Amino acid sequence: MRKLQFLLAGVLLSFTSINAQDLENSTLWKIEGNGLDKASYLFGTIHITCDATLENDVMKALDETTQVVLEIDMDDPEMQTKMMKGIYMKEGKTLNDLVNEEDFAAIDSLFINNVGMSVKLMQNVKPFFLSSMLYPKFIDCPMQSFETELMKIATEQNEEVLGLETIEDQIEVFEIIPYEEQIKDLVRTAKDNLAYDKANFAKLLEIYKNENITAMQDFMNDDNYSSVADYQDILLDNRNKNWIPKIKEFAEDQATFFGVGAGHLAGENGVIQLLRDAGYTVTAVRAEED
Question: Beta strand pairing status for 67-70 and 256-261?
C-alpha cells in the first residue's frame, strides 16, 4: 500500500508541459537574490526510475539547506486516507460507462496480466489513477523514486518535509479533466499491451539522464497522450504559477531544497522562468561547476 501511495501521489509528474524554451542541461538549479539571505535549490525529479541515486551536487545542496519541500507533503500521515477518498469517480460513474465491451475486455486483460487483479474490482477508480498503477511495468527493473530518497535524507538530517500543494489539490485536477478524456490513453495502452509506453518511457529516462529538461517538454508533447497534451494549463501551468508565492515564502523563511517533477522546470510557464520573472536569479548548478 505504501508503494501505491507514492505511485498515485506522483501520477501528475509523469507528464510535462509543451512550451519549449532552451535552458542549460541541468536538473539542479540555485535560487538567489530578490532579498534572500541564503540560497535555496530547485531539483527536477523523475518519479519512476531504475536508479534514484542522488549525485554529489544534489547532496551538497541538501547539506546547504535546512528543509525539504516537495510537490506535496509525502510524509503526511493522513495522506493515504485523503488520497483514497479522492481516487474514485463521482456520480457513480464506472469504467463500463466509459468504454465498450471490447475495450473493457482489453483493459481487464491488461490488469490481470500486469497488476495481478481484474479491473472489475476497481471499476469506479478514475482512469488516470488506474493508469498510474501500470507505471512500474514501464521499466524492466525494480522501481525507485527520487522523492523517496529525498525523504530519507531529510529524515537523516532531522529536517521537515513539506509540500507546495495538498493531495486534494492534485486530485482535483482529475475532476477537471473529463473521465472520457482520461480513458483514451488507458485504452491505447491496453490495445498494444504497454508496448508504446515502454518504448516511450525508455527514451524519457535517457533524456532525464542527460538532464535535458527542454527536450523533456518537446518529447512529451505526444498525441498518444492526448488527454495530457490538451490540458497542459491545468496539469502544469496553473500549478507552477500557484507555487511561486509558496516558494517565495519557504525560501525567505530558510534555505530550502525544492524537489518537483523535472517537467515543471522549463518553458515560459515553467518554474525557472516564473521565478526569474518574480525577480530571482536562477542558475544551473552544473553549468556553474563546469
Answer: parallel
